[in-house]
Design a protein that fits this description.
five-stranded parallel sheet, 333 residues, 2 domains, Rossmann fold, six-stranded parallel sheet, alpha/beta
C-alpha cells in the first residue's frame, strides 16, 4: 500500500497507559511515514488523557467500555487477572468487533493474534502476520515488539518518546495549587493497577526518611487505593508532602509528567505513571515483581530496576536499602 493512499490508521494496542508509552516509537514512526493520515486509538473514556498527552492521536468514535459498563469488558478483566491470555484475547476481539463495527480505515495495526472482522479495512496487520514474515515478537521488550510493525511496513524507525508536555512549567495539582520546590525532590508513587505490584508502607517510609535526612524533599503520589497507605506513611514520617487524595491522583497526566521531569528520581512499581516519567526524561527506579523487566522495564532506564521477578516474584521482599542505594546512584548522576 502506497503511503499517500493511507488517510486513516487504526492502532489497537493493549489499553493501559504503559502500553501507550511503549507504543510511542511506533506511533512517531507512523506519523513520520504517513503525515497526511489520522491515527485512531480505541480507548476507554477514563484513559483518554493519555491520547491528549501524546498529542497527535484521536480516539475512535465509540469509547471502549470499562468493566463496569459491559459484561464482555468485565469478563476480559477477570481473565487478565487470572492470567488467562487466550480467553482475554478472545474477549478482546469481541469487544473490538462490537465497539468498532462499521468503521472504515486504510490500515489497521493490531498487536494481538487476531484481526477485526467488523471494520472495513483493506490491510490489517496483527502479530501473527509479523511472525509469519520473520519478525518474532516473543521475549522482546514491548517497545521493540511494537516496532515490529514498523519493520513489517518497511517504514523508517523514529525512536522518539516525545510527549505534548511543556516541561518548563511547574506541576499544578488538580486543585490549582502550583507545586514549587527550591530543594531537590524524590517522587514516590505508591499505586499500581494490580495489588501484587504494590510495595509496602515500611519500605516507602524508610526510603522517605533517608531522602529527607539527606536533603531531598519527598512527594507522595498515588491512586485512590493508595490513600490509606499514604496516610500511614505520613503518620510515620510527617515530613513528606502527601498529594494522594481519597478520590485518586492529585495530578492529571501532563502535570505528573512535569513533576517527574523535575524530580531527582521517581520510584514506582510497574505502572503507567512510571512509564510516563521514563518517556518525559526523568530518572526513574522501577520496582518489579509480578512482571518481567525484560519486557516491561522503563525503556530508557532499564538499568534502574530492582526486581524480584527472577526469584519469588514478591515485591514485599524488596528491601528499602536496595531502593536507597539506587536513589543515591541516580541522584548523583
Amino acid at each position: 500500500m502506497k503511503n499517500e493512499t493511507v488517510h486513516r490508521i487504526l492502532y489497537a494496542p493493549p489499553r493501559g497507559i504503559g502500553d501507550m508509552i511503549f507504543s510511542l516509537p511506533l506511533l512517531h514512526s507512523l506519523r513520520g511515514a504517513y503525515p497526511q493520515a489520522s491515527i485512531h486509538v480505541p480507548m476507554p473514556r477514563d484513559k483518554e488523557g493519555i491520547l491528549r498527552l501524546i498529542g497527535f492521536l484521536k480516539n475512535t468514535p465509540r469509547y471502549l467500555p470499562k468493566p463496569s459498563e459491559d459484561s464482555l469488558a468485565n469478563d476480559r478483566w477477570q481473565a487478565s487477572v487470572r492470567g488467562d491470555t487466550k480467553e482475554k484475547y478472545r474477549l478482546e476481539k469481541l469487544i473490538y468487533e462490537k465497539y468498532l463495527e462499521g468503521q472504515e480505515f486504510d490500515l489497521a495495526l493490531i498487536p494481538k493474534d487476531f484481526t477485526i472482522d467488523s471494520i472495513t479495512c483493506p490491510e490489517q496487520v496483527c502479530e501473527r502476520d509479523l511472525r509469519d514474515a520473520g519478525f518474532p515478537t516473543d521475549g522482546k521488550h514491548m517497545v521493540d515488539r511494537f516496532l515490529g510493525f514498523v519493520d513489517y511496513l518497511k517504514i523508517p524507525r523514529v525512536m522518539s518518546f516525545d510527549l505534548a508536555v511543556d516541561k518548563q512549567k511547574d506541576a499544578t495539582l488538580n486543585s490549582g495549587w502550583r507545586l514549587q520546590s527550591d530543594r531537590p525532590y524524590v517522587v514516590l508513587n505508591l499505586g499500581a493497577s494490580l495489588g501484587r505490584k504494590v510495595w509496602n508502607d515500611k519500605g516507602y517510609s524508610e526510603t522517605a526518611s533517608w531522602c529527607l535526612d539527606n536533603g531531598l524533599t519527598v512527594v507522595l503520589v498515588g491512586d485512590k487505593d493508595s490513600f490509606d497507605m499514604a496516610s500511614r506513611i505520613e503518620r510515620e514520617e510527617g515530613r513528606v508532602f502527601n498529594t494522594v487524595l481519597r478520590q485518586g491522583y492529585a495530578f492529571d497526566l501532563e502535570n505528573f509528567a512535569r513533576l517527574a521531569f523535575k524530580a531527582g528520581a521517581v520510584v514506582s512499581p510497574d505502572t503507567g505513571v512510571l512509564h510516563i516519567a521514563d518517556a518525559v526524561g526523568a530518572k526513574v527506579i522501577g520496582l518489579y515483581s509480578a512482571t518481567s523487566p525484560a519486557k516491561y522495564a522503563p525503556y530508557n532506564n532499564r538499568l534502574n530496576v530492582i526486581s524480584r521477578y527472577g526469584s519469588d516474584q514478591n515485591v514485599q521482599n524488596i528491601p528499602s536499602r536496595e531502593v536507597i542505594k539506587k536513589i543515591e546512584e541516580v541522584v548523583q548522576k
